[in-house]
Amino acid sequence: MKKILLAYSGGLDTSCILTWLKEKYNVPIVAYCADVGQQEDFEAVNVKAIKTGAEKCIIEDLNETFVKDYIFKAIKANALYESFYLMGTSIARPCIAQGMITAALKEGCDTIAHGATGKGNDQVRFELAAKSLAPHLEVIAPWRMWQFDGRNDLFDYAEKHGIPLPVTKEKPYSMDANLMHISYEGGILEDPWAEAPENIYLWTKNPEDAPNKPEFVTIEFDAGIPVAINGEKLGPVELLKKANAIAAEHGVGRLDMVENRYIGIKSRGVYETPGVTILMQAHKAIESLVLDKEVMHLKDSFTQKLSTQIYNGYWFAPETQILWKMVEETQQPVTGTAKIKLYKGNSIVVARKSPASLYDLKISSFENMSEFQSADAGGFINIAGLRLKTWSKKNASIKKSLQATS
Asked: Is 90 among the catalytic positions?
């Protein structure tokens, strides 16, 4: 081992890890901090990294890449893990991993290290990314090696080594913030029956305190990519920031769920994802107009698989790349505008339009039957029901049971 690059945030875990790595291996350490919109004092992060043992601290601005190449791709896919989670952490990790691996190779590091715990998903995400992009790099995962049992031990270690920390023993939950979301886990949230205290939320307004008047927002898409809000054309980062501000003001984007980690442990997470909540709703609204029925249903089926791949850390895997290509094939006609109503924590699609719309009023309207031959429906039903008639005749016992209960 000649040089280590550590994925560094300046939080409790990575602050202790940096000092621990220096003590244990006594080799040069490069601290790598990815700016994905967490709004930190990066100058303070740099000073802290050097003070606690790093020979160099790299702070890389990945905001544009994160939004354009990761978040917007997930919106195209309508990616949700277990029906609810928008995956702000899961999507950020491969972006950060790609940045840190590129930096490690440039800095001549032969080893990378991370602060993910041995029970969590992030260890899998970072290390699978490394195996996909630079399999020759060695990986150190201190939480799977060192003597500390939990974060209380780290507090004692930090005190002993004079490491300043952003959390306390009284407020020890773990946070992950970026342009897409803020997540909260651990500590006071580990009891799934305990309601998360209101003061935990740092981004979205309490829905009870949100404006008493609803706000309507229009979101425009071009080939599946959000390009304008309320008629204003914006670049990826500025557009997401504006969506975040609008939705957060109305308390939109909160989620409290118990999810299944990849390694099989159930975990309670609390999330704030304001902007992407309304962007994905708007995207789905445009898709409902422009995608053929069978194409839309097919896409729904494989994006469930894609969402699981993202959550489990297989962003760069070959099968995931095929799924991304399938998503892209569906997005060319996804151009149009959706209108969303925001009110007291709720966001509701109320209108949508598209130049590629497959919606035909003449066919759809109950007031006009001239474009649709109603008599054809009888033959269609007979054909569709043929197998059911055959099945029913062969299953007389089921038929008798139904008759007995009627």
From this structure: no
